[in-house]
Design a protein that fits this description.
The protein is α/β, with parallel strands linked by helices. It contains twelve helices and eleven strands. It has a six-stranded mixed sheet with strand order 2-1-3-10-4-11, with helices on both faces. A five-stranded mixed sheet has the order 7-6-8-5-9. Helix 7 links the parallel strand 6 and strand 7. The termini are far apart.
């Protein structure tokens, strides 16, 4: 009997040690990073900049999988329901990680409960640009035009509920002005709409609008970041333009299924941060007008809460709904 008890105790101790051993040996097989958008999207571009180097540093292949659908919610939900074993990761954005929780009560996952924050990886300010025909030179003139003729002007965006959409809506809210929203399927099309005269202004990703602004086809008047962008330092911020509480960033965050061991999350964070901080990676990000952040998991969690608090009133004011 004594021998039997001794064996059972030894077996229990071994079983208890298995998770810790598995964590210390991680990874022992290929890792998947899910992108909830199609190839060529900003998150896809970001993850492919570091995936190969990450595989080498971890000693296992890193496979990027695109799972688009429902504005990024499909792929995000997939990771939220994946095993928390360190072999499935996510690169997602503002909408699926924050905004959808405000206007979609039927969201099949809760990013604040079903996902673990890993890193705020990179950010992208929008650039607010106006038609040359509008004949304004700055945000003050743009807002004055909207206030003088409510409903006369149209603005484009990259879709309902996108950061491009909300960037203009928060300006309208803060200035008590009005313009008509016309959503487009992509940022290049949103900028083309300005050039063709279908709309008079937009706040869109810089990679789409800055080449046209430099060519004189539209006029860029501000960035929506809290500080001037290193990639377009000539443009004033919204704060410098009279709106000190407007910060509208398109951002990409790394997440893991909830209950993924903290030791694995911290290792993953450390390895990715090292790559994002390399000069050649930062240069490649700069060509897409992205700036690396490489935050800690704790900073990412705090950022998500701040973004929810910042944008929930705007989303509710606009009346966005999943329907």
């Amino acid at each position: 009997m004594t021998n039997r008890r001794t064996l059972l105790l030894a077996a229990a101790l071994c079983a208890a040690a298995l998770p810790a051993a598995a964590q210390s040996n991680w990874p022992t097989r290929p890792i998947r990073i899910i992108v909830p958008y199609g190839p060529g999207s900003s998150p896809d571009v970001l993850v492919r900049l570091f995936s190969d180097k990450l595989g080498k540093s971890l000693g296992q292949p890193v496979v990027v999988e695109n799972k688009p659908g429902a504005g990024g919610n499909t792929g995000t939900d997939y990771v939220a329901k994946a095993a928390p074993d360190g072999y499935t990761w996510l690169v997602s954005t503002n909408g699926p990680l924050v905004y959808s929780t405000v206007f979609n009560p039927k969201l099949p996952y809760d990013p604040f409960k079903d996902l673990a924050p890993v890193m705020l990886a990179a950010v992208q300010p929008n650039v607010c640009a106006v038609s040359n025909d509008l004949k304004v030179d700055d945000v003050k003139g743009w807002v004055a035009a909207m206030k003088k003729d409510p409903g006369k002007y149209n603005y484009s965006s990259t879709g309902v509920g996108s950061m491009s959409h909300l960037s203009v809506e928060i300006v309208k809210l803060k200035s008590d002005s009005y313009a008509v929203h016309l959503p487009y399927a992509s940022s290049p099309l949103a900028v083309l709409a300005i050039m063709q005269g279908d709309v008079q202004f937009a706040c869109v990703p810089p990679v789409a609008v800055m080449p046209q602004a430099k060519a004189g086809k539209v006029k860029a008047i501000a960035v929506t970041s809290a500080k001037r962008s290193k990639l377009a330092p000539e443009l004033p911020t919204m704060a410098e333009s009279g709106f000190p509480d407007i910060q509208a960033l398109a951002w990409m965050g790394l997440m893991a299924p909830a209950k993924t061991p903290p030791e694995i999350i911290n290792r993953f964070n450390k390895e990715v941060a090292a790559i994002l901080n390399e000069p050649d990676t930062q240069q490649k990000l700069a060509t897409a007008y992205m700036e690396s952040v490489a935050s800690t998991p704790e900073e990412m969690g705090k950022w998500m809460v701040e973004e929810r608090d910042r944008w929930a009133p705007v989303i509710k004011h606009v009346g966005l709904s999943a329907n």
